[in-house]
Amino acid sequence: MWLATPRPTSVSVRAGSTALVGRDVEVSAIVKILLRRPAAVLIEGEPGMGRSRLLEELAGRREFAAGRVLTGACQPMREPFPFGPVLEALRSAGDRPLGPLSPVAGVLRPLLPELAESLPPQPEPLTDPCAERHRQFRAVRELLIACGPALVLIDDLQWADEGTRDLMRFLAAAMPAELAVVAAYRTGSPSRNGGAGIPFRTPPNVQTARVTLGPLDVEAVGKLAEELLDLPRVSAPFTAKLHESTAGIPFVVEETLRALRDAAGRLPIGDVLSDRLLESLEVPISLREAITERLEGLPEPAVRLARAAAVLAVPSEPSVIGELACLTGDALRSALLSTLDGGVLGELGGDRYGFRHPLARKAVYDTVSGPERTLLHSRAIQVLAEQPVPPLTLLANHSRAAGRTEQWRHYAEAAADEAIAHGDTSRAIDLLQSVLAEAGLGEDDIARLATKLSQVALRGFRPDVIETLERILEDLTELRPSVRGTIRLSLGMLLVRTIGRLGRGRVEVEQAITELVDEPELAARGINLLAQPIDGLTPLSWHEVWMERAREVFDRIEDPELRLALLGDRISTQAHIGDGSAWTEFTELPDQGSGVAERVQLARLWCNLADAQSWAGHLSRAEKLVTEGIRRATDAGALYAAGLAQGTRVRLDWVRGNWSGLAEATEQLRDSYPDLGPIVMESSLVLGGLAAVRGEFAAAQRHLTAASVHAPEHGPIPVVLSAAGVLIRVLLATDDVDGACAAADNAVSAARRKGVWVWAAGLVPAAAEAYTRAGRWSEADAVVEEFARGVDGKDSPVSRVALLAGRAILLDARGKHPAAATVFDEAAAGYEALPMPYQAIGARERAALCRLNAGRLTADDRPAIEELAAAAEAYERLGATRDAGRCRHQLREHGAWAPSQRGRRGYGQELSPRELEVARMLSDGRTNREIADGLFLSPRTVEQHVAKVLRKLGARSRTDVARRMSTYAPAAIDR
Question: Strand 346-347 to strand 179-186: parallel, antiparallel, or no bridges (unpaired)?
Fold first, then answer.
């Protein structure tokens, strides 16, 4: 954590200012004040909060383009120039003609030679210095009046000399009518005059405001990261960690991001910003210089205190920091106040003091010499070990930094044990990994530590643990079979969770079971895993053999945690394959566990059962289970179970029609677990489904491929079959009937091989549609009837409804429209009861079309027309605009579409709802033909919409639309 490494040769290049992010409220308020002249605004903030960047933004605002914008800044010089920032600002005042000036203004000729041609002749100097200075002040005011509408921006007022302060006071007391002044100054550091007040007192007629800049929030930090890293989006965990690590201080955020960008070629920068990655970053030069400047301004005891705090690395009480720095009493109090006044340390709550962000701590730590570091770390061990509850992780870190290897190993293992007991899975894995990575461990030590790592790793998902366990099994060939089997069992379980490694994982588990012949309870965990049928194409019959073995060993198991694990997995497995007794058995279980291990197993059960119930169509049950399961898993440190439940959550939102913001939430979830196969595939299914209803068929197929739709042997079969159902509909929507049938063939083959038909509820209606469109009647009939036999007697409400939908499709395809309409109505009612609104609306649409297709349009068909119109409205409310367009197209085809009688709203320069749809599709790179197909419009109509979008957005081309849409904020639309 503290180990110092030589800094590599580097070149730091700053490519100019970044966009101002997260200050919209402040800028808007300041601009309003400055437009009501005379006006004076004071901007204050700690170092790094972006005062200068805010002034730069104000200088470029179009509201002030008609007048002069004059800028100046105070400098931290030992002997500053008199009136320096004001004169610097006035130097550019001659860029356009000035108003009339009296002879008094000539006194400024020596001070402003750039304006000599515009100023009157210089008058004779006065003998009284005070009178001469007063004349200079009057001349400055006259010049500002002659400038007309002017905005004066003065930065770093804390460095102002007394002459500048007096001049500012003089101007503030009687400001010119067309003048606006903005002055910025730094808080948290001593000013040149020892802290005298900022010279900004104005009379009542002057519009004034004081703006204090604080840290950026998480959202603003994310936007800044997207800009500086040139990424379309950054993950939520990355943004949260970046915000935590920088305290939201804009300067620190920017410098950290630049360091990440510069280090991209030599550091493993991914979607997650880790402590290890941050620790490996070099402190940016500008930030290092800023921290060094503050340190140099402190007295020697305060520097010692700051360095001691840097060695401690965590916020600590003053007495602890003082003990390391050998400071007590008044000396400690004085040194602490100096570090606070100098902006080096901060009060972080609970009488604890430390650094606002890790890079500041690292910058100070780098100023400590090697021998002094060792001494301070050794002293920290003594101080912390004497505390009532020794902080084991900190003691391990200090021992390692002090070079005390044996002591470090002892504390690290003890800290890992503590973390395991408290459910802190990530910390336990980090500690055990760090010890196992070091050379010099004995074989017994490696076996003990690897066993602990392998067991705790199952609570979370860390791909790096797989590599560690593989290395240990390869290097230590003489491990006892029980130890080897324990490690191999966990390795297999982790591999099963990894994309593309399911088969390898099951092989490792089977081998582990043979090695654990003397450890029946551990072997039972492996048997239990092989009994889980959800992943891959291995037939249910194979898994049922292992289910029977799991039942045989269950009665011989005494460990309560293991019994609960086996029981929970049996319940969720039975629920997955449609056994209704599983729910009854679940309701009879105890609600709470007696320890962390049992709480983990209960959390796993709630999360796994939520998944099973959601696939069965018990959506209300699943909703309650997943909410409580995530809470339990998070509290118990069961991170893997919590992650899986998040996947169930987004899929539940998808099928229940909760689509607002769902795509963004699902993308963030997928980004958070890029190596965890089940989450990647389930989130890709949801993203594919959402893209399909938007008519984004290429994106939908890309997402569905990631859901393993083309490689069912590697994915969770319920996800694969559901993804196949979406893919078939996408292909049919583009009239690719052959492609749809090929997708149906592959998926139906997978369902038959697996033998769990309750997972095919999303597949069968779509497959029947594809087969009937292709005239493959025998395959259509066969898949529906095989599905019927497979779900008969199963506890799967969604399967019963899907069977109705499949049979209705067969009737409709054979021209039996009245009968089909009746069955579609039944299916719609069933989907509505679940509830699955998108499928329900689809069934209502099909029922209406069946009635319309039964004969010519007559007065008796008005209910069907109304049903189809109602389906269009329902699709629109849900967000399925393409489906709504299809319904309206069908109404036009039947001569039944009538435009709204409410009249057309005028949108002026705002995009209308239809234009907004077109703009979004343009942003995705869609052609006019694709937009027309997606919205069921004519190409000519699309051309007209595109022209309006370009004009209203001020876009120069179609490709420019995406950039402008990223900042477009549509007005509220009346429905």
Answer: unpaired
Distance, CA of 12 to chain centre: 28
User: What phi and psi values does residue 41 have, to the nearest 5 degrees?
Assistant: -125, 135
CA distance linking residue 953 with residue 593, whole number of Å: 59
Q: Omega into 100 within 30° of 0, i.e. cis?
A: no
> Is 175 in contact with 27 (CB distance < 8 Å)?
no
Residue 19 is encoded by which pair of tokens? 């966009």
Structural tokens at position 278: 């941050």
- Report the chain's C-alpha Rg in angstroms: 35
**54 contacts: CB under 8 Å, gap ≥ 6:** 20, 23, 26, 27, 30, 43, 184, 213
Q: φ and ψ at 363, to 5 degrees?
A: -60, -40
Q: Which H or E run contains 213? A: strand 207-213
Tokens of 574: 């039975």
Query: Could you tell me which residues come within 8 angstroms of residue 273 by beta carbon, excluding any fewer than 6 positions away?
Result: 237, 238, 241, 242, 245, 260
Question: Could you tell me the end-to-end alpha-carbon distance of the chain, in angstroms, rounded to an integer?
Answer: 57
CA-based diameter of the chain, in Å?
113
Task: Check the CA dihedral 795-798-800-803 and report its sign.
Answer: negative
pTM: 0.68
Q: 526 with 489: CB under 8 angstroms? A: yes
Nearest to 385 by CA among 320, 303, 469, 330: 320
Neighbours of 663 (CB within 10 A): 16
* pLDDT (tens digit per residue) in 497-527: 887 888 899 999 999 999 998 888 889 989 9
Crossing angle of helices 596-616 and 560-576, in 10° steps, is 0
Tens-place pLDDT, residues 338-367: 999 888 999 988 899 999 888 889 999 999
Structure tokens at 211: 């703006």
User: How many Å apart are CA 380 and CA 386, to the nearest integer?
Assistant: 10
User: By the 8 A CB rule, do 495 and 467 touch?
Assistant: no
Q: How far apart are CA 557 and CA 559, in angstroms?
A: 6
808 by DSSP, 3-state: which? helix
Tell me which DSSP letter residue 263 carries: T
CA dist., res. 714 & res. 365, Å (int)? 48
As to burial, measured by CB atoms within 10 angstroms (0-12 exposed, 13-18 middle, 19+ buried), residue 91 is middle
Tens digit of each residue's pLDDT (9 = 90 or more) over 625-645: 999 999 999 988 888 899 899
Per-residue tokens: 432: 């055990």
